[in-house]
Design a protein that fits this description.
Distance between the termini: 25 Å
Family: Belongs to the CD36 family.
Number of strands: 17
GO molecular function: scavenger receptor activity
Strand content: 25-35%
Largest sheet: 13 strands, antiparallel
Helix content: 25-40%
Shape: elongated
Radius of gyration: 34 Å
Number of helices: 12
Main location: membrane
Number of domains: 2
Pfam family, one: CD36
Subcellular location: Cell membrane
Amino acid sequence: MWWASIPKGIKTKASFLLLSLGVLFGTTSLLIFTLDPVDILTRKILEIKPYNFAFGIWKDPPYEVMGKVYIFNVTNGQAFLDGEEKLKFIEVGPYVYKEAIYRTNISVNNDGTLSFISRRTIQFMHELSVGDPLKDTLWLPNLPLLGIISTMSDNVLPVRMAVGYLSLLLSGNEFLNLTVDDYLFGYDDHLITLASQFMPNWIHFSRFGVADRLMSLDNASNIASMTLEPGLGQYSVKDFNGSPRLEQWGDGSNSTCGLIRGAYVDPVFPRNLPKDATLTLYRHGFCRPIPIHYNHTDTDKYGYKTYTYALSDHFLAPLSENPNNHCYCKKARCDLKGIGDISPCYYGVPIAISQPHFLNADPKLLEDVGGLSPDPRKHNFYTVIHPESGLALEVKFRIQLNLNVPDTDFNYKTRPFNNLVVPLVWLELSVDGPPALIKITIDLLFVVLPWVQQILRAMFAFLGATLPMVAAWIYLTKLKCLELDSTREKIVLLK
C-alpha cells in the first residue's frame, strides 16, 4: 500500500502542518465573523476625512445635476385686468441648465471642523430644452412693479403715496413681454435702477431676474463650517457665517427658526440610516432649511435596496398645524397651507415658496388662478438614498417661487393683484441616477466584497474543520502502522 511506504517522519510533519493550517483557517474564519473586515474597510472609505475618498465626493460631487426651469406664461392678461376672468397661466418649459458644484477656500480647523465656500456654475443644455431662452418670449407679471409696491405696503402713508406715484410714472405695464433669459437672469428696469441709486442699502443691483437672485444667494461669499459627527464619520453643518442659524429669521435666542446646525449639504448622508430619521437639507438659495423624512422602501433598477425621503408635511404647514413656523411668518399668508415666506432673502419682496403647481397646498391657492394642475408624480420633492452607504442615488428637489401680493394702494396697476399668490416659476434640481463612481463604490462595498467575504469565511471554516480531521486521520494511521511494524518485529523474533 502506497501510504505505508511513506516515511513516518513525513507523516508526522504532514499531520502537524495540516493541524496548524486547520487552526489558522478556523481562527481566520472566526475573526472574519467577529471583526467584519468589509465593514471596517467600508467605514474607512466612506468616512469623511480630509482628502480621502468620501471627502473627494463631497468636495467635487461627481453627480450630474440638471436644473430644469418651468415658467408660468400669462394667457389672459387684459381680461384679468378688466376684472372679467381670474389670472390664467400655461406652463412653458423645461429650460435645462447643467449645474456644477464645487467647494473653495477649504480649511481644516484644529477643532475637527471644515470651513469652506460653495460655488455653483450653470451651463444651458439646448438639446434638453423646449427652446432658446434668448429668443423665446413670454407674457409675464411685471415683477419690479409688483415687488416694490408689495414691499412698501407696510410703510407709512407718505412713503406708500410717493412710491405709488413714482411707480405709475416709471413702471410700464402690468405684464411685460420678455425673453426667458431676461426674466430669469435680469433685465433693465427703471424702478430697479432708481431704487438701487437712492436706496443702495436695500437694493444693490440694477437688474432683476428670478434665477439670478437664486444664483446670487448661492454664490455669495458665505463661509460655512461643518463638524464631524463622533463615531459616524459624517459631516453636517455646524454654522453659517459664524452662526448656527440664518440671520434672516430672527435673533439667536430663537431655538428653531433658521436653525441649520446638523443640516446636510449634499450628497453624503450618514450611513445605516434608520427609517425614522428626519434629515435636514440646506441650500442657501432656498433661504430655509428643508426637512425631509422617510417615505418608503423600494428596490431601484440596479437592484439596490433604497429609502425614499420626501418633504416633511410640517415644512409648509400653517401655524394652526405647526406653531414652530411662526418665525417664518414675515409677509406670507401664514393661514394658508402650502406656502412659505422667503422675503428676507429677497430684499423684503414678498416671495413665497411652495411645491410646484401648489401641490399639497390650500385649495384656495388653486381656485384663485387658472392653468395649474398639481401631480405628485411630476411635482413631489424627494431624494432616494442607499441607506447602507448614505449616498444619494436619485434627487428631485422641486420648489416653486411665487409673489405673495398684499393689499396695495396708490397704484391702480397693482390693485387687481391684491391678496393674490402669483406663481412665477418652478425649479427642479434633478439627479436621475448614480454616477459611475458611486455605482462602482456601492457595488464593490455592498455587493462584491460581502459575497467574497462570505465565501472566504465559509471556505476557511470548512478547511478549519476538515484539515484537523485529516491530520487526526494521518496521525492515527501512523500509530496503526507503528503497531503493525511492532507486531511484525515480534513475529520475526519468535521465528
